[in-house]
Amino acid sequence: MSILSKEKNGGTPAIQIEGVHKKFDDYIALNNLSLEVSRGEIFGFLGLNGAGKTTTIKMLLAMLKPTSGKLYMLGEKVDAGNYKLWDKVGYLEEATFYPDLTVVENLDIARRMQGVPDKDSVNRVIYKLGLEPHKQKKAKNLSLGNKQRLGLAKAMIHNPEILILDEPINGLDPAGVAEIRNMLYGLAKNFGVTVFISSHLLEELSKVSTRIGIIHNGHLVKEVAMDKLEQSLQKNLVVNGRDKHALKEVLEEHGYEFEETIDGYIKLTDDHAADSPERLAELLVKSNQPPTLLRVITEDLEGYFLRTIGMTRGNI
Ligand SMILES: Nc1ncnc2c1ncn2[C@@H]1O[C@H](COP(=O)(O)OP(=O)(O)OP(=O)(O)O)[C@@H](O)[C@H]1O
Prior knowledge:
It contains twelve helices and 14 strands. It is α/β, with parallel strands linked by helices. It folds into two domains: 13-230, Rossmann fold; 235-298, Alpha-Beta Plaits (2-Layer Sandwich). The longest helix has 18 residues, at 174-191. Bound molecules: adenosine-5'-triphosphate (ATP). Adenosine-5'-triphosphate binds next to strand 2 and helix 2. InterPro entries: AAA+_ATPase (IPR003593), ABC_transporter-like_ATP-bd (IPR003439), ABC_transporter-like_CS (IPR017871), P-loop_NTPase (IPR027417). Keywords: ATP-binding, Nucleotide-binding, Transport. Residues 15-242 form the ABC transporter domain. It holds the Pfam family ABC_tran.
């Protein structure tokens, strides 16, 4: 591949954050944060409230300077004075609009505020976001999903290559989340747009992202591709029997480690027990303690998130 065509196809990553620290007086908000997002990815940036998501986004947008470390977008150093770069970046914090103006009118205002001279950019973004059937409707009369589309259209009026979204899905109902997913997938797949989207909800983020990075105490603690997430979820074997005391004795005798769950079942804490539940079933039957319940329980996404950041439900 020639250098030219490599560059055209996005030889450099869309976003690179290298060893960034951010201190507010003595408080360390970001602690050696590094991450990379490839072009065309939908990267979910997940963290509890206060983990450092907004601080990171403000740095990507050059609204804050890192105490140390480097940030690049599209191969260029992030710098408030680099207007060429800002032409290629869109940002959405919250979908706002003039309720009594139509979709076209709202977008034309956004176009002028962004300093985009080409009036056709309004129609182009309407097409990109599937707002054509609604373009003459007043913004206040749009469905929630189409209001989200209008918000995204405003952030994309200048045809950016990177779209940065700060918590746009928190509080949306499942239909709203599905709308956002379809829009973002379309933008990434059909137009090669890179999306960086933050949230504190893994459940929602997992539905729209192609990869997730988990930030905790200002540090990236885990990255996981969405198609690998299922494999990362912990699986536990849960058993119960008529004589729980005797059942526990059998487990102890055979070296199984376990704990009792809140609802009174016995959960095997050995990671591999869930791989072969039939072995345990056979043992219990042979020991005259046939199980009344034997089930593999897969951790839910919230459980995975909390385990990854070293917390359990109830202590956040
Ligand atoms: N200007 C500031 N001065 C002092 N501390 C700050 C400042 N901005 C952010 N912080 C602190 O840095 C930490 C990270 O904040 P940040 O807003 O990046 O978190 P977040 O992950 O975006 O959380 P949320 O989901 O609540 O927005 C928080 O403890 C916050 O109080």
